[in-house]
Specification:
- The protein is an alpha+beta fold.
- It is built from 1 helix and 9 strands.
- The protein has a 9-stranded antiparallel β-sheet with strand order 4-3-2-1-9-8-7-6-5, with no helix packed on it.
- The radius of gyration is 21 Å and the shape is globular.
Length: 134
């Protein structure tokens, strides 16, 4: 009877260790650092704004820059970056003008893809999606 309990206890410890290892792997995988490319839908789908978002993770926080194909954002620093429970949000100034339109992005990240919405301080908004480049 004692040997069965020892075997069960040993199996439980192995299972717990495996669970911790898998959690650690997921935490590493959750690093969003790198280059993401995608498109934001504009005017209800009348057009799309292609963009590149470069994210870096340092000292527990994300920083990054947004660039759009048409130049509406050129190396625009992102700010108020929050990544929690698979959701990423951030803001940046359109046209690099701190007194102009502020764009807010709220996306859900799954594997190497993000999907969600964008909105502007002037009241516009629609969907946005991106894929992480390898």
């Amino acid at each position: 009877m004692k040997s069965i309990l020892r075997v069960l206890l040993f199996a439980a410890l192995i299972g717990a260790a495996a669970g911790i290892a898998m959690s650690a792997q997921k935490a590493v995988k959750a690093d969003l650092s790198g280059t993401w490319t995608g498109a934001a839908v504009i005017n209800g789908g009348a057009s799309k704004e292609e963009f590149t978002l470069v994210l870096a993770h340092k000292d527990g926080a994300y920083t990054g820059k947004m660039n759009t194909a048409t130049g509406l954002a050129q190396d625009a620093e992102i700010r108020n970056v929050v990544f929690k429970d698979g959701k990423l949000s951030f803001e940046f100034d359109l046209n690099g003008d701190p007194n102009g339109d502020v764009i807010t992005v709220d996306v859900t990240v799954a594997d190497d893809a993000m999907t969600g919405t964008w909105s502007s301080s002037s009241g516009q908004g629609d969907t946005i999606e991106a894929k992480k480049q390898k």
